[in-house]
Structures are given as structure tokens and as C-alpha cells.
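Exercise 7. Given the encoded structure of a 56-residue chain, write a plausible sequence.
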């Protein structure tokens, strides 16, 4: 696992396909909805595979 950035509370790393169910769960949480624009699973999968994008 490559850590892209780290603080005392957060560590960002590249998303893996195994992370997608967790990501989708977070996106569907009512408390998070005001802060994000949810994506379909396929869009996340494409972003993970795309060489010009960084999905964290």
C-alpha cells in the first residue's frame, strides 16, 4: 500500500476495487450527501483504472 499523504487523523491511499463497497456505503450515508456528488460503481471502477486520474 502506498500512502499518498498522512496526518495525525487521515491517511490517503489509492482506492482498490476491494474498497468500492465501502466507498459506495459512505456515499449513500445521509450525513455525507451534502458534501459529495455520489457516483455509480462503474464510474468509480473506471476512475481507478484511468491512468490520468487519482482515486483516493
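Solution.
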Amino acid at each position: 500500500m502506498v500512502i499518498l499523504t498522512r496526518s495525525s487523523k487521515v491517511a490517503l491511499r489509492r482506492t482498490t476495487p476491494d474498497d468500492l463497497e465501502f466507498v459506495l456505503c459512505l456515499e449513500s450515508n445521509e450525513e455525507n450527501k451534502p458534501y459529495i456528488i455520489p457516483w455509480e460503481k462503474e464510474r468509480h471502477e473506471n476512475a481507478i483504472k484511468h491512468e490520468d486520474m487519482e482515486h483516493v
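Remark. The mean pLDDT is 91. Students should compare their own answers with the one above.
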